[in-house]
Specification:
Length: 174
Amino acid sequence: MQPQLLLTSFQTWLPHQKSNSSDELLKIIQPNQIDYAQLSFVRRLPVNIQQAAEVVISKIEAIQPHGIICCGMAESRQQLTIESNANYQESKLTTPVDLSDLISQLSNTSISHDAGRFVCEGLYYQVLEYCRTIKFTLPCIFVHVPVLNPNNLAVIQADFQIIMKFISEKATLS
């Protein structure tokens, strides 16, 4: 049986944004058939921490995924970045995924230790907290996606495919 991965993205939040790159990436990924996992999507989450967390946690409870990849847009970044942790007030939660091992397989992705202090970090914290209380070994990461363009799309898509495969492999081990 293939592991099931849950992938999430956000809608836009500023007037100048025509789309959210995290959602654009999932839109590209969604119709593709892959042989290593079943993919479930929650796309275009509201840009509200509480609402987004409620939607995602409800989906986690409904489908019981084996791994989670939350995605958000980072307009100022030039490559995919995987967030190592999420903060809320004085609390910090870290992903259970070995990011050094993951990054070693990627050509143009880095680790970030600053999830942005916005809805992305809020959702990531809530999902990590939920996973910690229910099933701590559940592999869960947050990937920030830069603005997509013809020059970076191929490498971003290739790295994201490797990320999905890595998380699915970790999901089968947990």
